[in-house]
Amino acid sequence: MRRRRMAGFLPFQMDKGNSKNPNSRICFLASLSAFFWFFLFYFHFVVLNNNNNNNNINTKNIIIDESTILHLHQLPKPTFESTPFHVPDENQLIEGNQKMGLPDLKQETPKKEEVFSFMRALRTSENKSDPCGGKYIYVHDLPSRFNEDMLKECKSLSLWTNMCKFTTNAGLGPPLEEENNIEGVFSETGWYATNQFAVDVIFNNRMKQYECLTSDSSIAAAIFVPFYAGFDIARYLWGYNISMRDAASIDLVDWLMKRPEWGIMNGRDHFLVGGRITWDFRRLSEEESDWGSKLLFLPAAKNMSMLVVESSPWNANDFAIPYPTYFHPAKDDDVFIWQDRMRNLERKWLFSFAGAPRPDNPKSIRGNLIEQCRRSKVGKLLECDFGESKCHSPSSIMQMFQSSLFCLQPQGDSYTRRSAFDSMLAGCIPVFFHPGSAYTQYTWHLPKNYTKYSVFIPEDDIRKRNVSIEERLRQISMEQVKIMREEVISLIPRLVYADPRSKLETLKDAFDVSVQAVIDKVTNLRKDIVENRVDENFIEENSWKYALLDEGQHEVGPHEWDPFFSKPKDGNGDSNDSSAESAKNSWKNEQRNHS
Ligand SMILES: *[C@@H]1O[C@H](CO)[C@@H](O)[C@H](O)[C@H]1NC(C)=O
Ligand SMILES: *[C@@H]1O[C@H](CO)[C@@H](O)[C@H](O)[C@H]1NC(C)=O
Ligand SMILES: *[C@@H]1O[C@H](CO)[C@@H](O)[C@H](O)[C@H]1NC(C)=O
Ligand SMILES: *[C@@H]1O[C@H](CO)[C@@H](O)[C@H](O)[C@H]1NC(C)=O
Ligand SMILES: *[C@@H]1O[C@H](CO)[C@@H](O)[C@H](O)[C@H]1NC(C)=O
Ligand SMILES: *[C@@H]1O[C@H](CO)[C@@H](O)[C@H](O)[C@H]1NC(C)=O
Fold first, then answer.
1. pLDDT of residue 428
2. Residue 113: its H or E element
3. What is the pLDDT of residues 62-82, one digit of tens each?
4. Would you say the CB of residue 244 lies under 6 angstroms from ligand 2?
5. What strands lie across the sheet with 318-320, from one edge to the other?
6. Looking at ligand 1, which residue's alpha carbon is closest to its atom 6?
7. Cβ < 6 Å from ligand 1: which residues?
8. Per its UniProt record, what Pfam families does this chain match (predicted)?
9. What's the predicted TM-score (pTM) here?
């Protein structure tokens, strides 16, 4: 982050302290002559020196008004650091001109108020009669090639799955049929065969229902870019060269950076959604064999916030949001009824697992977990194979989760799985084996204190110590299980995406929580800029630690999970073969669909 030259003052604070002004005649003349020289130097060093740069000449003709402030701040400011003279900058000149007088030169303290183009937006939250104050979202009107056109060509969106049926019903997919609901595992309404990569469309459609949309970007708390980033890259992940994979991303940032909105904060108030794992957008090199696009490495994308279903622990420009489940309530009651059902179910299995082994990954603990499920009388397994199996049937999966107290959620090819959200929706307490599977990911949506809603068994306990899951889970008292399950059930509203065609009355869904978090992030950044706060010790590689900090904390240090997140380059630690390496394998995940 760039350090600002001078302390910022809030414009509404600036009238204070200007009242006394002892203008003796001599002072006045001295000021006049000083100003004359300053002006001469200013003209010489700044205006003339830059006169082949049209942008800077504009700084002469400034009229203070909201619209030009926005314009002004898009332009590169002339830099005074190298000149040996103190030259009044444009804001001081404006003030002088407005008062039809001269800058008060005796007031040595350079308490210049910076006028930030986002001040108007920041101040909307002080307007008590505006329920949307501080919450406005401006949505870019992107050309249709960045979104709608992809839906028209839905057949090309995946090599194995015909995505056309999954983009119906505003992205929810086809309703789950009556005959699918064999054991009555779903409630009456709100259930769809939703694809795990459909968040691009669902989120975009949910945005259309957002109650504080604005067409005036100068009051926006954040700016949404409705690009279907996940759909875009899914078309080209397999069998296309890197220029095809990067084309839309480069086209998009070119388009965005030409908009006046970009200049407000260099894109740091922009956010977009890609309903896939971050590794699909983080190609490290220009090698054709390397995986994915380089969207998240583009300079413009480094300034934006991208919401993905799995974020990178080591990067600051992506944030994890829940995978979609099969449940998309249209009203509060749909949720309350479901929660009540999940409270009162009889759960005959202590633990269960739905998934496939990873025989080609020697570090995977899935084989061990599958063995334990098979061996235990209180364990249940739904094994996924290639082709048709019960593992791909939403009702079989949900039925098993609904009959289990605990649901095992080991890593797949990457840290996270959709299954974690399906199991919590079923009121089943998740058991995680790697902090990257949830705790460092969904910090906006899940409690920071993970022991409240989940069980953590480090992978090495399974891998190296062959720990018995059954024994470990039996140590948790039935009373404690009940408290944890209630916590899981209470989280359901914020983990599901409501039906984008209607609106929950009071409950906040996964979309609402995400948008609020983006707004908070941008608002805090703006306040930091105004108050001239810079975190000089910020190390992007520690992003996952910052995400775990409580409100008001800024410092990170050694963490008990460090071994889980030592970078691949270190060659040791559990993450050796995760990240980009596993992204290369994620096609298997997609082929197997639910594993
Ligand atoms: C405050 O909000 C109300 C309602 O949206 C609006 O009419 C009014 O102009 C706002 N006031 C200011 C100072 O922006
Ligand atoms: C990449 O592939 C596209 C079509 O698949 C082709 O038109 C283009 O020339 C290729 N670009 C490079 C640099 O190979
Ligand atoms: C990103 O933000 C930084 C800091 O505001 C700025 O210097 C840089 O030019 C921005 N990048 C782009 C591509 O706008
Ligand atoms: C986390 O939650 C558990 C269970 O509710 C509680 O015993 C523990 O004190 C909490 N830890 C912190 C740091 O709040
Ligand atoms: C793990 O423990 C179980 C029973 O406790 C045993 O049957 C199995 O052989 C052990 N596996 C390994 C790899 O040691
Ligand atoms: C990490 O992975 C590389 C290649 O993927 C391998 O050569 C190396 O042995 C691995 N290191 C450890 C400690 O597993």
1. 98
2. none
3. 333 333 333 333 333 333 333
4. yes
5. 213-214, 137-139, 222-228, 270-277, 305-310, 318-320
6. 130
7. 127, 129-130
8. Exostosin_GT47 (PF03016)
9. 0.80
